[in-house]
Amino acid sequence: MDDKLIIFDTTLRDGEQAPGIALSPDDKVAIATQLAKLKVDVIEAGFAASSPGDFESVSRIAAEIHGPVIASLARTHPDDIDRAADALKRADRKRIHVFTSTSPIHMEQMLRMSPSEVLASAKEGVARAKRYVDDVEFSPQDATRSDPDFIVEICNAAVEAGATTINIPDTVGYAMPDDFVELLTKVFTDVRGGNDDIIISTHCHNDLGMAVANSLSAIAAGARQIEGAINGIGERAGNTSTEEVIMAITTRPDHFDVEIGADTTEIFETSRLVSSLTGYPIQYNKAVVGRNAFAHESGIHQHGVLRNRETYEIMDPLAVGQKSVIVLGKHSGRAAFADALAKLGISLSDDEFTRSFGRFKELADRKGEITEEGLRAIVAVETGTDTGDWTLTSIHVSGGSNETPVASIALERNGESLTSTAEGDGMVNATFVALQDAYAIPATLADYRVSPLTSGADAMANVNVIIMVGSSTYAGQGVSTDVVEGSARAMISALNKAAFAIATEGDDS
Fold it and tell me: What is the CATH number of domain 391-508?
């Protein structure tokens, strides 16, 4: 297979036009350097005539980046084209991308020009660009809302004037795949014809969420260049996502009979760099590069992936610079829990596993996701619990700034139950007093520490306490998303040890 699909990346031009993004020349060079590592075929470095900063960016990228073709956008205005040519003069390979609007609303309301005037300007603009470079691209802006016959007429005029790439933009994301294929087929047949030197291209926006679908559908109609931006950034709802196109072609070679030269292992790093420098976060469920793109929480999915990655992953995450992640949450099953423990080097008895898994599910139902630190804490607490000890079944605390705090606790052991209610100076103190009464042990709280295991309003807390009973000390640990409950669990752990020691000493005496 030698049918090449050209990947044209416009992150630095159309992508930067997204509201709030203002990349410096240094930022643009950094992104261009990474795009070259990704091995895209064309980098549209900017719109050289739009500002001094853009001119500098295009000039530096043209001089410093080697490998991809470096392109600059230009209107059909002579000054735009001259400025683009000047900015590109140090590039190894260069392209001037000339555009004008062709839809009735654009010609009437924006250009204030007749179709014949627009046609003439397109011819002149492309011819002027051709004086500077051999590689000229022409785009009829808002093509999908234009008269198809006029699109064919103006594109033929551009080819006659020297254009080598004809790009059909869905500028406002208006097209549906069937409509877009019909338009591309017409352009391919009536403009390219038998001229193998002319490349038909797409440039789709995502206003209706169709950018990638429209772009990929056009391949069957003869398109051999797709324009997109990393992470799909761009005006309004953004552009075609470069990385999604690359992985669709790579993953489904049976469907797309074309080849690309991109290095997919650089995708994730490119995505992170663009996100960092633009300030645009990547949505968690974004295809290919999102945080959850290769993350699994459902117990059924986790079980399948642990047996064979391909059960639920159509792409190898390593191929895009990502990794597969088993997220421990409320939907996780015993297989994922056991796998996580094994990766941490933790081995449990059947009883310890059952207790730890039960506590994990209880906390995950509140917290959502349990981190490695949380998992270690759960195991540490549950493996230190003897099956003959009292365990907490419920706790309720009340009281505010004008009320004395009251704690009510309920404990269970081998079918027995125990309840106690007490007041205290604060909610934690009231809990401690209620537990002292329940155990009938005169203990003193010698040390009390709370360590957050995760961040956020629903953070898990690890509570460590040391109690004194007479001259002896006993330590306890508890984990919960609620500090008071975690404190109660830590105190119960310590009081269980004290009760066991007292009972043992009584048997020996």
Answer: 3.30.160.270
